[in-house]
Structures are given as C-alpha cells and as structure tokens.
Design brief:
Strand 4 and strand 5 form a beta hairpin. Helix 1 packs parallel to helix 3 and helix 4 packs across helix 8. The strands form two sheets. Strands 1-2-3 form a three-stranded antiparallel β-sheet. The chain has 17 helices and five strands. The longest helix has 22 residues. Helix content is about 50%, strand content about 10%. With about 375 residues, the chain is mostly helical.
Length: about 375
C-alpha cells in the first residue's frame, strides 16, 4: 500500500503519465493528482482514456477519485484500500451526512474538525455543513465502479450501508436548489457581453465564451472549457435576403453526457457568435488544441484549457461588472437561459432541443412551461 509521501521518482512518473491524458482531465491540478492518486489509479484512468470513455464522465470519475483519496488520507492516514471494507464505507457516510442540530450539542458528531481542515486547505471542501445526499451517493457509486474495474468486490450493497444512508438522509434534510437561480436569457446575456467592450485578450475571450456557450444551445461548462480547435468545422455561409451572408460553423461535440457511446453530437453556430469566436482564435493565436485558455496577469495565453469552474467564475464576474448580483448566476444559467429564451421567442421545443441536445423532453419542457405560464393569460387576470 502506498504511503502519504511517494518518492520523487514515483511523482515524476505519474506527472508524465497524467500528461498523456491531459485533454480529458482537470490538468491544472496535475501535480496535486500525482500526489493523491496511486500508480494503479493512474493506470486505470489511462486505460479508460484508451477505451474511449467520454471526457465528461472521466473528469467526474477523476474528481471523485481524487476526493476519496484525499479524504482517506486525511481520515485514516492511508490511501484507499481495494477492496474497501464495510467499516470504511460507514465512516464515509458518517463524515458526510450528519445532523447540524446534533453537532451544536456534540462537536464530535459528523466529520472530525482536523479532517475537515485538511480537506479545506487542499481545496476539496468548500461548503459548510453536511454534503448533499446525491453527492455522497455519486461518490459511493464511483467508488463501487472503480472497485469493479479492478476485478474486486466491495461492500457497497450491504444492508448496513443502505440503512446508514437512508437514516442519515432523513436526519439531514436539504432544500433542493437549482444549479443557477436565474436563467441567462437574451436581455441578461446582452448586459454581460456589453462588459466585454475593449480589445483586451480577456474581453475578447470572455465575449466568445458567453456567445458560443449560449448560441450553441447552452453548452455545459465542461463542454465549453474542453472545446478544441479540432472540433470546429467551417460551414457554407447562410444566405440572408437583402444582407450579407452569415458566417457558419459546426461544433462536433463527440460523445456527451446524454448521448450514446458511438454518437458524434453536432451543433451549429451562425452569425455574431462565429465572428466572436474567430476574433478570439486570432487574438489568442490559437490554431490547434484547446480553444478557451487561461490568461495570466501579463497577458500571456496558457497552452492549457480553462478549468470548467472558470466558466462559472467568468459568468459571475461579468454579472458583477454589469451591475447584477453575481450570486444569482452561474454557467448553468446559460444552458437554462437558452431554452427559456427559445420559449420566449416562440421557437418550437423540438427545434430548440436539436441545438441544446437535451434528451429529456420533460426536463427541457420545464423551461418552456415556466416561460409560457409567466407570459400567459392565466398570470395576467389583473393588468
């Protein structure tokens, strides 16, 4: 079993191996991952890349695995055992699903303070209070999946674990929150774009991010951050009567969160978003690789892709610059905003879903129903 402090040779080897899968991993944390993950963890991730696992799924698995390893080191001093004993699974539940009221009278209830402090210092723990039950279930599912990929069996189906989760969830009621309190509809998007008024690299980049993310159907932040030049294909201009043709290009998304293993999802950009994207590619001198990249304080464009979280940060920053409350917006607001705006403009739901690539009519129609109820006659009995 690996210790907390691997040798420098082992670290160098993992960093090198992680570089080979940089296109699909959150590589701004490469060195940290090299310290947390074991050699077998890295080999598993490389195998999944070679097998063609979707980038979004692999990022999620890597994020969960890094958290689990960090938690195990913080709480036990050792890397994750494979297979995991039932007692450690129960400890994980106890550390993450607990009753805030009971902690007021029992400081030892829930995650120990020293474990919590270590995870906060490492950046793995940002919120205060117990975890969301869905997050705990997802991480346990990741743990179970990785166990099976190693050809092992864990105690994930044990009655004791199921009972512990069920009872813990009852003790930690949490109101369901939307990913973004407000949809970034057309009027709000215009205000955000208006803050990108100069020719600076940051303004040119952020304008392209906002316009491309919205106009391409409200792309997920991971899809925007992971977009590569090789996914872009110029298309024939769109004729417009009495005006100049509109530039057009297609974005090949490949396999997405909701598509099948062999699907190549394609969406289209037309007009101003294409101009904004081309302006950024020219200004950033990007002819291959990641499209949206970090920019340092001296105006140098990084060779690595933006972290998906940076997309939300950009939306919040631009909201604040536009005089809006940044806490009310996130990258998901671009996705919900696209469908809401499509509903407001009377675009048929199936047509909007072709661009957003939603698979669930029920989920997509929620935005349409909300828009129609807000502007419909039933809400305007007194005007």
């Amino acid at each position: 079993m690996e210790t907390r402090l691997p040798t420098q040779t082992a670290l160098d080897r993992r960093v090198q191996h992680l570089d080979t899968i940089a296109a699909v991993l959150p590589m701004e944390r490469r060195d940290e991952l090299a310290e947390l993950l074991t050699d077998q963890d890295v080999e598993t991730l490389r195998h999944l890349v070679n097998e063609g696992m979707g980038a979004n799924t692999l990022r999620a698995l890597t994020s969960d695995l890094a958290y689990l390893q960090a938690w195990s080191l913080a709480s036990t001093g050792l890397s994750l055992p494979w297979p995991v004993p039932e007692a450690l699974l129960l400890k994980f539940v106890a550390h993450h699903l607990w009753d805030p009221e009971k902690r007021l009278s029992d400081p030892d209830h829930g995650m120990p303070s020293d474990v919590e402090e270590k995870l906060r210092i490492q950046g793995f723990l940002r919120t205060v209070g117990p975890h969301a039950p869905d997050t705990v279930r997802r991480r346990l599912a990741t743990w179970s999946t990785l166990t099976k990929w190693r050809g092992l069996q864990g105690a994930f189906a044990s009655p004791a674990l199921k009972s512990a989760i069920r009872l813990s969830v009852r003790a930690t009621p949490r109101p369901r929150k939307r990913k973004s309190a407000k949809a970034v509809t057309g009027d709000i998007l215009s205000k955000l774009i208006a803050t990108c008024r100069t020719d600076s690299l940051r303004d040119v980049r952020d304008k392209a991010i906002l316009m491309v993310a919205f106009a391409s159907g409200g792309r997920r932040r991971s899809e925007v951050a992971g977009l590569r030049k090789e996914q872009l294909t110029p298309e024939d201009p769109i004729p417009v009567e009495g005006s100049s043709p509109l530039p057009s290009l297609s974005i090949h998304l490949g396999r997405t969160k909701t598509s099948g293993a062999d699907s190549d999802e394609v969406v289209y950009l037309t007009g101003r978003p294409v101009d904004a994207l081309n302006a950024w590619l020219k200004a950033g001198r990007i002819d291959k690789g990641s499209v949206f990249r970090a920019i340092d304080r001296w105006g140098n464009v990084s060779a690595r892709a933006l972290d998906p979280k940076a997309i939300s940060d950009i939306v919040k920053q631009r909201a604040a610059m536009a005089g809006l409350d940044p806490t009310e917006f996130s990258a998901h607001g671009l996705r919900s905003g696209y469908l809401t705006e499509a509903a407001n403009r009377g675009i048929p739901l199936p047509e909007a879903m072709e661009q957003s690539r939603h698979r669930s009519v029920q989920q997509a129609s929620e935005y349409y129903n909300h828009a129609q109820r807000r502007s419909g006659r039933a809400s305007r009995l007194i005007e």
